[in-house]
């Protein structure tokens, strides 16, 4: 129970990677704040699963691509638990297999709102409200480090958060707060890989991974839980890549 008594807020945590992270943190003893924007039933199912570990779980609906949604989420967490010790900025949107020539202004505005503006202000609020000695983790993508066909817009929208993490690590270090990025490769069973129509694309990616498989949500949840723990107290401003050697 490495996180016993801690309070962890995870954005975009009703399904997929966010769900796995919430449940891993709950398994290690953290009370959790589950965030969703549309699928309430999925969020309630995560709350039930987290509660089975004997922790408290709060569900809060908020669109974290908008600042008012972000502040309402933090307000609810502090009202319920009195503090926030761990923040995982996970919410995001994928758009792949789109050549740069086919990207529209609407595509650009949407992805940058969700993948750049949203995490920026999630991390801003974390910096304002997190407890001294706290842990901030941003979930990124190895499309920011591995150029691939069709990910020009998606990868570009994820780059800025990695830079912000490095700046925040400097600003928050005197308070004992660590700030890091987890950089997953393609994740089986999450995002676009929940759709069988993308199986051929998935097989093509496996050929690029030395370890011979896509990652799982559990792989990334384990890395995130490590960075959220006291074991990672001296790790800050770093990008921890979890992609089977694809980078």
UniProtKB/TrEMBL annotation:
It comes from the Bacteria. Its EC number is 1.1.1.-. PROSITE patterns: ADH_SHORT. Signal peptide: none annotated. Keywords: Oxidoreductase. Pfam families: adh_short_C2. One of its GO terms (molecular function) is oxidoreductase activity. Belongs to the short-chain dehydrogenases/reductases (SDR) family. This is SDR family NAD(P)-dependent oxidoreductase.
């Amino acid at each position: 129970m490495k996180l016993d008594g801690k309070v962890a807020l995870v954005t975009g945590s009703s399904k997929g990677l966010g769900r796995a992270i919430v449940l891993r943190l709950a398994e290690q003893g953290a009370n959790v704040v589950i965030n969703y924007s549309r699928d309430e039933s999925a969020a309630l199912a995560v709350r039930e699963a987290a509660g089975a570990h004997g922790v408290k779980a709060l569900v809060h609906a908020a669109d974290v691509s908008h600042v008012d949604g972000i502040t309402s989420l933090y307000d609810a967490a502090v009202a319920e638990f009195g503090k926030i010790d761990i923040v995982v900025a996970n919410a995001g949107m994928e758009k792949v297999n789109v050549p740069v020539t086919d990207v529209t202004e609407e595509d650009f505005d949407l992805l940058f709102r969700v993948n750049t503006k949203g995490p920026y202000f999630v991390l801003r609020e974390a910096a304002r409200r997190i407890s001294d000695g706290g842990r901030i983790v941003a979930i990124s993508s190895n499309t920011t480090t591995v150029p691939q066909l069709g990910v020009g817009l998606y990868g570009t929208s994820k780059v800025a958060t990695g830079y912000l993490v490095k700046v925040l690590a400097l600003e928050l270090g005197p308070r004992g707060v660590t700030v890091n990025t987890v950089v997953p490769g393609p994740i089986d069973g999450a995002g676009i890989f929940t759709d069988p129509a993308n199986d051929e694309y998935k097989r093509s990616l496996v050929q690029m991974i030395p370890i011979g498989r896509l990652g799982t949500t559990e792989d990334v949840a384990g890395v995130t839980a490590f960075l959220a723990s006291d074991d990672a107290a001296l790790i800050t401003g770093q990008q921890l890549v979890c992609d089977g050697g694809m980078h």
